[in-house]
Design a protein that fits this description.
binds magnesium ion; 2 domains; 356 residues; Isopropylmalate Dehydrogenase; 12 helices; binds 3-isopropylmalic acid; 10-stranded mixed beta sheet; alpha/beta
């Protein structure tokens, strides 16, 4: 198969981790007879420096013209002072919106080889953690009207959190379908005791749950969900929630494993095109030092093959290669353990390549 991929390496460690991921993709192409064509587009701080905007219109068009988008990471202290409309993050939000990537899948999986990295007690993690957060990504307070105005001599800021039935229904459907393919268990997280959009959210989810009688469905209030994730994370399988709650809970969930550098993510539209990225940030403190963990990006490539290109075998192959390298005791600095073999970002990429 021939596939066009737009590569957004971004800032900080972005280019380093992306270089390893592209090598892996090339190897898969060679092994299975696919051709992957890359178009590189600047995004985030590097684009602000070159063009004065976090992504150019031309860059956005390239994303839209591709079969899929692969992203490294954006941002860094250098651009923290930029005005709100040209911050690096703005480009990320724009790509999500323009490509209608409304469904963000964020798996959290405890790699047994790295169980010691989890800050939780062994009794809590011993049954393994394997959950998936389905986060709504193009609605809510992130994209609602916002303003700051002067009222009675002081500034007043307002953000609006709108959700329409169809926006809730389409993310709900992705969550129920995903639950059907996993353990048929779905928790919908909201704040229906206070927030109006959460009340609508719950109503639509209940309607959908009637269509999926096999799925064991529950409503969980977001504050309670935050607590339960620490207290008893293994009770969850698929969690569906709105944009901002999903942002917060997915960071919390990723920490359960202690190895955020390993976690991939997928942002999907109603078609096959998606954007794939590791969930960690641009880590400016270690940028350019060949210290970063490329496995989150490599596993994001596996998700891309699985979800956008229908290449399950190829995706399994990458995941097995990562597992083998961990089994053999190779670790980048972020997941280093006593007695393990410490490797650089480039070496880690080469090890995965070797397994393929
Ligand atoms: C994420 C990030 C983004 C978000 C930021 C960078 C805008 O935190 O992908 O979780 O809030 O969605
Ligand atoms: Mg976040």
């Amino acid at each position: 198969m021939n596939k066009k991929i737009t590569v957004l390496s971004g800032d900080g460690i972005g280019p380093e981790i992306m270089a390893q991921a592209i090598k892996v993709l090339d190897k898969i192409g060679e092994k299975y007879g696919h051709k992957f064509e890359y178009t590189y587009v600047d995004i985030g701080g590097c684009s602000i420096d070159k063009y004065g905007v976090p992504i150019t219109d031309e860059g956005m068009e390239k994303c839209k013209a591709s079969d899929s988008v692969l992203l490294g990471a954006v941002g860094g202290p250098k651009w923290d002072g930029c005005p709100a409309n040209i911050r690096p993050e703005k480009a990320l939000l724009a790509v999500r919106k323009e490509l209608e990537l409304f469904a963000n899948l964020r798996p959290t999986k405890l790699f047994l080889q790295l169980a010691d990295a989890s800050p939780l007690k062994k009794e809590i993690t011993q049954n393994g953690i394997d959950l998936l957060i389905v986060r709504e990504l193009t609605g809510g307070v992130y994209f609602g009207p916002k303003k700051t105005e002067e009222v009675n001599g002081e500034l007043v800021a307002t953000d609006v959190m709108p959700y329409s039935e169809h926006e809730i229904e389409r993310i709900g459907r992705v969550a129920f379908e995903t639950a059907m393919k996993r353990n048929k268990k779905l928790a919908s997280v909201d704040k229906a005791n206070v927030i109006e959009t959460s009340r609508l959210w719950r109503k639509v989810m209940h309607r959908l749950s009637e269509e999926y009688p096999e799925v064991q469905y529950s409503d969980v209030l977001v504050d309670n969900a935050a607590m339960q994730l620490i207290k008893n994370p293994t009770q969850f399988d698929v969690i569906v929630t709105e944009n901002m709650f999903g942002d917060i809970l997915s960071d919390e969930a990723s920490m359960l494993t202690g190895s955020i550098g390993m976690m991939p993510s997928a942002s999907l539209s109603s078609g096959t095109r998606g954007m794939y990225e590791p969930i960690h940030g641009s880590a400016p403190d270690i940028a350019g030092k060949d210290l970063a963990n490329p496995l989150g990006t490599i596993l994001s490539v596996a998700m891309m093959l699985r979800y956008s290109f229908d290449m399950a075998k190829e995706a399994d192959d990458i995941e097995a290669a990562v597992n083998d390298v961990l089994d053999e005791g190779y670790r980048t600095a972020d997941i280093m353990q006593e007695g393990a073999k410490r490797v650089s970002c480039t070496e880690m990429g080469a090890l995965v390549l070797g397994k393929l």
